[in-house]
Each structure stands twice: as C-alpha cells, then as structure tokens.
C-alpha cells in the first residue's frame, strides 16, 4: 500500500484570501421551539425558561457562529435542528461524517473544531457518538445542521463537576450522491457495491499519455476551488495490472487536503478542480502528474483513481473558526 495521493512537494502553502458570503440562517434555541415546522425533528424537549438562549448563525459551507451570554445556564440537555437535511436518512449503525464545533459554555473556549482540519467519520451508535448525539442524529438526513446543548463531565480542568457544552453538528455525505453518468466503452469502468465502495476495471491496451478526467456521478454541491479544504474518499489502481494500490474505503477513513496549492499530486490538482461536492470523479493520471521522477514504486505507473468529493469549503472560512490545517486523514470511530 502507498499513502494517499499527497504531493511530493512541500505542504507549506499560503492560504487563499477569498471568502464567499452566503445566506445566513439563524436559530434561537429555546426562543423558537414552538415555531418549528412539522418536518423539523426535535428529539429533546424545548429548553426551560430558566436556561440561557443560544443563537447559531452561518451558512452550510462556513463554520457556525455561536452567540450566547457566558457563563451559560443549562439545567436541561436539549437538541434542536438548525436546518433539516435533504439527503439520505441516517439509520442505526450507519457511517456518519460530521463537522463538529463545540465551546465550553462557561468561558466560550473552543473544546472541539473539525472545521480546521477534517470532519470525523464515525458510526451512528451510542457507543461511538454518545447517547444524546445518537438520539439527535437518528432519523435526520444528510445536510442537516444540529445544535446540542448539554452538561458534560469537566475533563478540561482539575476541578470536579460538570460544564455546559454548546455543540453544532453538520452532517456530511459519506459517499457520492447525484446523477449517474455513463462512461464510454474503452475507458476504465466503475461499479458500485451495495456498501457504496467503487471498484475499477481497467481496459486492455496502452494507457493514455495525458490526464483524463471523467465524471461518474455528478453532484450538486459547491465547486472545488483553489485554496479549498476538500474531503474525499478514494480508491486507486494501476493501469498496468488493475491492482489496487491504495484506498481509504476499507480503512474507514476520509482524507481532507488543501487543494490547488500543491498539497496533492498534480493529477488530482488539475483533475478535481471545479468538480462539485457529491460527485464521483474518475482520474487517469500519467506518471508525470503522479509519482514520476521519484523513488516511489509507482514512479513509472499510470494510475487510475476514483474519487468521491464529500465536502469542499474555503480554507479562509476554516481559519476564521479557530486554526489551520493542510491535510489530514481521519479514521472511522
């Protein structure tokens, strides 16, 4: 096995400096509980009048912003849908890909922030995500944003007791979802198993000398732009014998990398830009755009990748959250 398709060049790159403004969705937890439409799922009772309200703002492709007065008063754990999803329904035991942002309600210190590196691939099971988040997520759809306010054991300080925790959760897809596109005869063919994992069949004959890019599934999400943090699942095979040399499907992980600035191989840089989140893309990458000229065992190989683009977001937006990240691979669980 060879590691993910990271560039042989340095990963020290400058951040993009553009941030696209988007529609802001606002929810005041506890103040708007009775006004929810029937399709909103509210698994936990509305907040008591004695609890402090929490406001969530931000669009789907930027980190959420929490507004509340600290120290936060929480007497009752609760969760609320900020907006519903429109994708697949989450059922017990499903893999779930989550962007999570959490603050300590006592002082607004950041407790968790996956926006700056990589969303977490977990299993929808109480043992993996906890009882309250399990109940909040069960039955929701991909694309939903949830707000969870709870009291948790204080593990951040030496003091015993509990702390108020304010958590937002964005549910991302775990595989491509969109309009299938038929590939031409004579090209590598892609099949999808019941578990969603793609397999690749390489045709006989010599490989192309130039990069070839084909859309297998056309998603409807945001386009990959230079400077985006892009989260993918992928499989790679060699054209010469069809042997798989790399995949993060079986390992239960996702790869998040900074695109367009030299952090992944040139074939990915050129081939995935301007494709949309939700897409599955076939890349036939000649050695010059992969590992040619290196001491890699793949140096002379034309490589065939199938890449599911799960999420793409501005690295500037991530920087505005709490920190920075260039590439990361996170495993399920």
Automatic annotation (TrEMBL):
Can you say what this protein is called? peptidylprolyl isomerase
Q: Where is this region: Disordered?
A: 187-208
* Annotated PPIase FKBP-type domain residues: 227-313
Tell me the organism.
Sediminihabitans luteus
Reactions this protein catalyses: [protein]-peptidylproline (omega=180) = [protein]-peptidylproline (omega=0)
Entry's EC annotation: 5.2.1.8
Which GO MF terms are attached to this record?
peptidyl-prolyl cis-trans isomerase activity
Q: What Gene3D superfamilies does the entry give? A: 3.10.50.40
The UniProt keyword set, sorted, is: Isomerase, Rotamase
Q: Which InterPro entries match?
A: FKBP2/11, PPIase_dom_sf, PPIase_FKBP_dom
């Amino acid at each position: 096995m060879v590691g993910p398709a990271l560039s042989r060049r340095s990963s020290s790159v400058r951040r993009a400096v553009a941030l696209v403004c988007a529609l802001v969705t606002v929810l005041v937890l506890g103040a708007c509980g009775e006004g929810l439409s029937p399709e909103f799922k509210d698994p936990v009772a509305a907040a008591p009048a004695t609890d402090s309200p929490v406001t969530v703002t931000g669009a789907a492709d930027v980190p959420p912003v929490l507004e509340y007065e600290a120290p936060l008063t929480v007497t009752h754990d609760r969760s609320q849908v900020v907006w519903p999803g429109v994708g697949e329904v989450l059922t017990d035991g499903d893999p779930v890909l989550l962007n999570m942002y959490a603050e300590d309600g006592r002082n607004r210190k950041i407790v968790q922030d996956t926006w700056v590196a990589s969303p977490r691939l977990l299993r929808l099971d109480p043992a993996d995500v906890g009882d309250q988040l399990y109940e909040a997520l069960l039955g929701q759809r991909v694309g939903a944003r949830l707000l969870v306010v709870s009291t948790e054991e204080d593990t951040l300080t030496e003091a015993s007791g509990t702390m108020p925790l304010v958590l937002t959760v964005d549910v991302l897809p775990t595989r491509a979802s969109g309009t299938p596109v038929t590939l031409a005869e004579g090209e590598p063919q892609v099949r999808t198993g019941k578990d969603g994992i793609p397999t690749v069949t390489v045709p006989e004959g010599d490989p192309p000398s130039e990069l070839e890019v084909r859309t297998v599934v056309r998603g409807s999400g945001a386009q990959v732009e230079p400077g985006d943090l892009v989260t993918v699942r992928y499989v790679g095979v060699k054209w010469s014998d069809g042997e798989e040399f790399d995949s993060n499907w079986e390992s239960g992980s996702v790869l998040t990398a900074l695109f367009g600035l030299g952090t992944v191989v040139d074939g990915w840089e050129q081939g995935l830009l301007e494709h949309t989140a939700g897409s599955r893309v076939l890349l036939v990458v000649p050695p010059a755009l992969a590992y040619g000229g290196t001491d890699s065992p793949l140096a002379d190989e034309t490589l065939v990748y199938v890449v599911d683009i799960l999420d793409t977001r501005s690295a500037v937006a991530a920087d505005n959250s709490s920190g920075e990240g260039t590439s990361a691979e996170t495993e399920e669980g």
